[in-house]
């Protein structure tokens, strides 16, 4: 059994335990009956976002007790430490400075005697030059043709963030730039890359190789395949281009290891800097965001940064009781640790946010999927819930059955923009699209209402047969964006980043390392050597040995 944690012995924690017992299994419909103005009481706005926590299963007293817990855990001081560049990544003894990537050029952040802002903006300027060259058709492949397709090779934070944002902001492509398509390949089995290589023209294709360490096997295996594909076609008999020219004109590298990029063959002029003090899952704000800038242009990319910075300022300056990331985090603490809800679903009601749930899965579960406190002890309480989700309108026809009538309690985040399609020129088309948007919002608002009220949302709901009954009492959060723009998307992402950090502070865990991921990589490397060398399996367990031998047998059957 884990040892008792100091967290569970804090007065505020004990007060919350007593409060939870006093509330019992109170139903949300009762809370709304007792407090008709819950929306105003539990709603806050900042940076183009509105956060409605009224449908959480809590009371004003609950919130005050949670705020007391945040103060006891030192959340205000921890916010300052993060934003001031102190060493909040305890296990790796370094700061976590993703917020520095979105500081304006006029700002200053001195960390250990170095102002980080100039280097950040030098990299942005270098990105801008690359983007301009590609958008104007001046970046030519080895045979002289302009680049038309860019394939981002990365995995985890080097893939999920840029993929999510480019999809979300596809409407913001800059006018006047040449047609440039951006693609993403992350799977180590090569299935995504094989599709691209089968239909793209090597003369007009450029690869962005994104890897913080430049040792990630998933990314490097795809990169080697891409390099061989290019060299076979452009340096072969047909074109006879020098291999060095092919490498120079068809690869950009993004990494914290310039020497490894250089050794791999990427020209110094086509490298972008990525710093050790930025975690991969927090990295889309810098050079890892190059694919974003290629899709939306640097002006919109800077708006994305500005939106995130606006949320950073709110996080630092707002009182805890009005602080969106803090309140969102405390609702999560209440659900996980006191209501024992260990499943959390992310449900955007906007097709442009198709990849947002996948992005948050990494952000939250890689950050807070921890069971050891800063002092090395085992936690005595639950930490990160299991996060999952997809587009809400599609999910309604998939797993909402479980949400409404299953046995598993799930807390849901509903996310939607208030306005859409204002810019559509044709009046009739605009009217039709706006009607569809209203229908989408109607579904979003209705689903959270039914999850909350259950049968009470229906006339004579209590007269239904048992298989048509809805228990309700499922808590949810609704997040509204004024519009989905680069700025509001930046604020939305930063909101969740800071929520994760606040929860980590309260749970006394480190959200900025990922040793579980590193272990998996190491063991995979050892296993791959056994598979390739066809020896060493005797050191494995019986199941793993059997799987390895099954692969060898299948391999031997190939003529």
Automatic annotation (TrEMBL):
Q: In the record, what lineage is assigned to the organism producing the protein?
A: Bacteria, Pseudomonadati, Pseudomonadota, Gammaproteobacteria, Oceanospirillales
**What name has this protein been given in UniProt?**
Glucose-6-phosphate isomerase
Keyword list (alphabetical) reads:
Cytoplasm, Gluconeogenesis, Glycolysis, Isomerase
What general EC class does the enzyme of this chain belong to?
Answer: isomerase
Q: Which family does it belong to?
A: Belongs to the GPI family.
Write out the pathway annotation from the protein's UniProt entry: Carbohydrate biosynthesis; gluconeogenesis; Carbohydrate degradation; glycolysis; D-glyceraldehyde 3-phosphate and glycerone phosphate from D-glucose: step 2/4
EC identifiers of the protein: 5.3.1.9
Protein purpose: Catalyzes the reversible isomerization of glucose-6-phosphate to fructose-6-phosphate.
What are the recorded GO MF terms, alphabetically? glucose-6-phosphate isomerase activity
| UniProt superkingdom | Bacteria
Does this entry carry the keyword Isomerase?
yes
What is the source species?
Answer: Halomonas salifodinae
Q: Has UniProt tagged this entry with the keyword Cytoplasm?
A: yes
Recorded catalytic reaction(s): these are: alpha-D-glucose 6-phosphate = beta-D-fructose 6-phosphate
List where in the cell it is found: Cytoplasm
Q: Which residues form the active site?
A: 366 (proton donor), 397, 521
Q: Which InterPro entries match?
A: G6P_Isomerase (IPR001672), G6P_Isomerase_C (IPR023096), Phosphoglucose_isomerase_CS (IPR018189), SIS_dom_sf (IPR046348), SIS_PGI_1 (IPR035476), SIS_PGI_2 (IPR035482)
* NCBIfam families reported in the protein's UniProt record: PRK00179.1 (NF001211)
């Amino acid at each position: 059994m884990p040892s008792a944690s100091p967290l569970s012995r804090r007065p505020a924690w004990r007060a919350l335990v007593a409060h939870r017992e006093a509330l019992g299994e109170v139903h949300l419909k009762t809370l709304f009956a007792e407090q008709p103005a819950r929306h105003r009481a539990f709603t806050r706005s900042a940076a183009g976002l509105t956060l409605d926590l009224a449908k959480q299963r809590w009371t004003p007293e609950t919130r005050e007790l949670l705020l007391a817990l945040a103060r006891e855990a030192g959340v205000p001081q921890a916010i300052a430490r993060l934003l001031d560049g102190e060493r909040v990544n305890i296990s790796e003894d370094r700061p976590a400075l993703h917020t520095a990537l979105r500081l304006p050029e006029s700002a200053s952040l001195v960390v250990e005697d170095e102002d980080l802002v100039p280097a950040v903006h030098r990299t942005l300027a270098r990105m801008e030059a690359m983007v301009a060259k590609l958008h104007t058709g001046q970046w030519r492949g080895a045979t002289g043709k302009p680049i038309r397709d860019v394939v981002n090779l990365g995995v985890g934070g080097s893939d999920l963030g840029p993929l999510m944002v480019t999809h979300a902001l596809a409407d913001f492509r800059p006018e006047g730039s040449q047609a440039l398509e951006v693609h993403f390949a992350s799977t180590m089995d090569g299935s995504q890359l094989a599709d691209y290589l089968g239909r793209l023209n090597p003369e007009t294709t450029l690869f962005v190789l994104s890897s913080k360490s430049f040792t990630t096997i998933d990314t490097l295996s795809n990169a080697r395949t891409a390099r061989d594909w290019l060299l076979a076609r452009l340096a072969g008999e047909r074109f006879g281009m020098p291999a060095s020219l092919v490498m120079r004109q068809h690869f950009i590298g993004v990494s914290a290891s310039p020497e490894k990029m250089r050794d791999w063959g990427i020209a110094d002029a086509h490298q972008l800097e990525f710093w050790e003090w930025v975690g991969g899952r927090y990295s889309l704000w810098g050079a890892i965001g190059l694919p974003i800038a290629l899709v939306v242009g640097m002006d919109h990319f800077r708006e994305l940064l500005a939106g995130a910075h606006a949320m950073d300022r709110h996080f630092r300056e707002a009182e805890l009781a009005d602080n969106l990331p803090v309140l969102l985090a405390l609702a999560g603490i209440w659900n996980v640790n006191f209501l024992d809800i260990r499943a959390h679903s992310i449900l955007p009601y906007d097709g442009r946010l198709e990849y947002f749930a996948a992005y948050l899965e990494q952000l939250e579960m890689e950050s807070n999927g921890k069971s050891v406190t800063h002092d090395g002890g085992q936690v005595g309480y639950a930490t990160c819930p299991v996060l999952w989700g997809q587009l809400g309108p599609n999910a309604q026809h998939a797993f909402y059955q479980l949400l409404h009538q299953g046995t598993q309690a799930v807390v849901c985040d509903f996310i939607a923009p208030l306005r859409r399609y204002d810019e559509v020129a044709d009046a009739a088309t605009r009217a039709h699209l706006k009607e569809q948007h209203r229908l989408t919002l109607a579904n979003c608002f209705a689903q959270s209402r039914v999850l909350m009220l259950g049968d009470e949302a229906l006339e004579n709901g209590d007269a239904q047969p048992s298989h048509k009954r809805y228990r309700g009492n499922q808590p949810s959060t609704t997040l509204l964006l004024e519009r989905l723009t680069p700025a509001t998307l930046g604020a939305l992402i930063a909101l969740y980043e800071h929520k994760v950090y606040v929860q980590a502070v309260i749970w006394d865990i480190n959200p900025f390392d990922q040793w579980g991921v590193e272990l998996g990589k190491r063991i995979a490397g050892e296993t791959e050597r056994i598979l390739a060398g066809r020896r060493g399996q005797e050191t494995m367990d019986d199941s793993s040995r059997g799987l390895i031998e099954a692969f060898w047998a299948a391999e031997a059957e190939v003529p």
